[in-house]
């Protein structure tokens, strides 16, 4: 059934709707074209090389759309200001679409034409966030628009380095910086959501389980070790950055150990988030090991634990909360969203494990791409019906349950 004009206008009532839709569509289409475009008679996409195009579009295309979907939704709870809607939201999405269209001709368009729409996208997003944060005087949140601006700068440098072979900035270092940006984002955002949402759900169902443990020391160490790993990575310190990544992964695992994963696995939406965070732990350790022992596990393969597992898993698990049904204040995942996540989880494992099977490496990479596309197709089938109608708030959480205390068992 074709949506009516009134239904189509619903798309612009909240930023998460068009931006998660864009992220899901591009996750499917970009990998489809990159992996099978030649077989379909299409010229392979390239930014210097097809691999660099693929990396760019997953980090600065898919990743940037999903990042905006979350930040523009969360900023309303940080500031109490209305969400970006209507023409402003349409302008942001138009810039993102223009950037993707420009990347279709990444090897032939003039460099300023190639850079301009993406630069405009990141600048507008950072400006909207900074405006709302400054208006509400919640200065502690200014790090988020600053991070968006920094990612926009990395995007520009990456395109120039890939197109011009610019020796001043190495594409490998810039890719690593982009991946670390999203690893830090998962650690901060999912690391705040998971214990809060898990504790709320445990209260809702009256589970006789202690609330998730908020480990302030692990939180601080987790952030410090991630930034140290980023700094050492940009400095080109292969050994020490690898060690820092392993330590960061262990600290994130320490955080995760207190979040009642065993109980949370009974709730599909919480299971998605907790398992996504597990990918962060695995990915940081695996990339660190790959950097220390490149002959054991190539970093180009290991990094998919962070991109396909942690980053993409977070996108899907957060978007799934926006697409979930609401019954009595609780979020209900349904069947398709957990299935889509399970398929995505499988794609990540196949891709990360592919170096173990040297004779079947190319076939496994293609299989991982196929499974990835199937996951995002399932997600879109579940998500699209939820972009119509009134916006239900809060977008990412259900009703807050009243706190309960767990009494020790009575004595004999």
Automatic annotation (TrEMBL):
InterPro entries: NnrS (IPR010266). It comes from the Bacteria. The keyword Transmembrane applies. The keyword Manganese does not apply. The chain crosses the membrane at residues 19-38, 58-76, 83-103, 109-130, 142-162, 174-197, 217-235, 241-257, 269-290, 302-324, 336-354, 360-384. Pfam families: NnrS. Keywords: Membrane, Transmembrane, Transmembrane helix. This is NnrS family protein. It comes from Phaeovulum veldkampii DSM 11550.
């Amino acid at each position: 059934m074709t949506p009516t004009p009134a239904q189509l206008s619903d798309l612009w009532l909240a930023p998460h709707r068009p931006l998660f839709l864009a992220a899901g569509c591009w996750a499917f289409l970009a990998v489809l074209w990159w992996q099978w475009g030649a077989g379909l008679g299409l010229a392979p996409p390239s930014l210097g090389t097809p691999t660099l195009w693929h990396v760019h579009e997953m980090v600065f295309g898919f990743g940037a759309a999903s990042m905006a979907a979350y930040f523009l939704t969360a900023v309303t709870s940080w500031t109490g200001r209305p969400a970006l809607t209507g023409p402003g939201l349409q302008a942001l999405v138009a810039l993102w679409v223009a950037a993707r269209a420009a990347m279709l001709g990444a090897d032939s368009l003039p460099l300023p034409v190639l850079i301009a729409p993406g630069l405009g996208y990141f600048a507008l997003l950072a400006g909207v966030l900074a405006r709302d944060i400054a208006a509400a005087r919640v200065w502690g949140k200014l790090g988020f628009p600053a991070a968006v601006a920094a990612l926009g700068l990395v995007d520009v440098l990456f395109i120039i380095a890939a197109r011009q072979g610019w020796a001043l900035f190495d594409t490998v270092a810039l890719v690593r910086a982009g991946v670390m940006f999203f690893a830090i984002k998962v650690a901060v955002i999912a690391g705040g959501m998971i214990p809060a949402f898990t504790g709320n759900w445990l209260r809702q169902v009256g589970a006789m389980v202690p609330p998730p443990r908020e480990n302030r020391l692990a939180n601080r160490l987790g952030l410090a070790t991630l930034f140290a790993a980023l700094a050492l990575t940009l400095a080109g310190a292969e050994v020490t950055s690898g060690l820092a990544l392993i330590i960061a992964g262990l600290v994130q695992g320490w955080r995760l150990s207190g979040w009642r994963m065993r109980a949370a696995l009974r709730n599909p939406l919480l299971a998605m988030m907790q398992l996504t965070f597990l990918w962060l732990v695995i990915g940081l350790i695996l990339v660190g090991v790959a950097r220390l022992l490149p002959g054991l596990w190539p970093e180009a393969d290991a990094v998919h634990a962070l991109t396909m597992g942690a980053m993409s898993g977070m996108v899907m698990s957060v978007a799934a909360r926006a697409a979930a049904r609401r019954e009595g204040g609780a979020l209900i995942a349904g069947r398709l969203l957990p299935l889509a996540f399970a398929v995505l989880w499988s794609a990540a494992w196949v891709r990360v494990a592919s170096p173990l099977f040297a004779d079947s490496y190319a076939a496994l990479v293609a299989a991982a791409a196929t499974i990835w596309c199937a996951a995002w197709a399932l997600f879109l089938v579940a998500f699209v019906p939820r972009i119509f109608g009134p916006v239900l708030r809060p977008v990412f959480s259900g009703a807050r349950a009243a706190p309960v205390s767990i009494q020790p068992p009575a004595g004999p």
